[in-house]
Amino acid sequence: MKIKSRSSYEKRLERYGIMFILPWLIGLVLFFIKPIAYSLYYSFSSISFGADGIESAWIGFKNYNEIFFENTEYLPALLDAFKNIVSEVPLILAISLFLGLILSKKFIGRTFSRVVLFLPVIIASSIVITLLKNDIFAQNIMKGDVNSTLFNATGITSMLNNMNVPSKITEALTGVINNIFDLIWQSGIQILLFLSAIQSIPKSFYEAAQIEGANAWISFWKITFPMLLPTVLVATVYSIIDSFTGYDNPVIKLIDVAYKENMRYAYASAMSWGYFVLIMIVLALVFFFVGRNTKHSEY
User: Which residues are CB-contacts of 172 (< 8 A; sequence separation ≥ 6)?
Assistant: First the structure.
């Protein structure tokens, strides 16, 4: 009787659990899986609007043939998106790790510094930032300035101009400063990931290394960095996806134009799936080269 009672109790718990996750499952099917399935089907179809609504006809790989062999903008946009990944992600990871190491130390104003660095994640998404940058770009065009960065180092520019610094050097320095601000603005989540991972490393490891005569440099490469490899993988994947799906990404812009302005839903679906394949290839390479080393660093 006790076994049967326990079994019925467990079944009730299972039913309650299913009831709790049922709304999520329904939402997953209706708003995620179903649209993805339709998008994949539409990428192989021709879509038109008739009296009965959307009408689709199967055309095979015609849309894919057009985007890869006839569209002169799609492949260059894919290449630009890949170049952005190669140039930005390593810098974002390096800056995030560096700031995470600094914020893990005890100093006056540490809490305030953490809030300031994570504040961009709270107050602004990538879409908001892009709209702000576009607005600034439009204002600067009216002034004859083509600089579209969000953070314009106008004070530094004025100071360098007053010091009679050559204009090329001034533009180079302000460009570097603006890019650093932009990278820090994109690093909030990664900083938080590295900070939490650094704080989870047992202090006894560093104490043992110090007893053995290891300095801070050796401790970082022998203890901190190997322990952070799983977090490096997570931060890398997040940074890649964030860059690939950013509102100012050239491929996203092309898809947006095809979908909203040209009303070519099937064509936009094909562009999206081609882009998805590129993202999966890049992520597979990341998991192969970075992920295979993470299991050796777990403790």
Answer: none
CA dihedral sign of residues 147, 152, 156, 159 = positive
The confidence score (pLDDT) of residue 148 equals: 45
Residues 6+ away with beta carbon under 8 Å from 198 = 100, 101, 104, 224, 228
| Phi and psi, residue 45, nearest 5° | -130, 170
pTM of the model: 0.74
Measuring CA to CA, which residue among 165, 204, 186 is closest to residue 243?
A: 186
Bridge partners (DSSP) of residue 45 are 58
pLDDT of residue 8: 77
Q: Encode burial over 204-232: b for 16+ CB neighbours within 10 A, e otherwise.
A: eebeebeeeebeeeebeeebbebbbbbbb
Q: Mean pLDDT over residues 25-45, rounded?
A: 91
Contact 253, 197 (CB under 8 A): no
Q: Which two tokens stand for residue 152?
A: 């314009």
Spatial distance between the Cα atoms of 194 and 258, rounded to a whole number of angstroms: 38
What's the pLDDT tens digit per position in 147-185?
A: 444 455 555 666 666 777 677 776 777 766 777 777 777
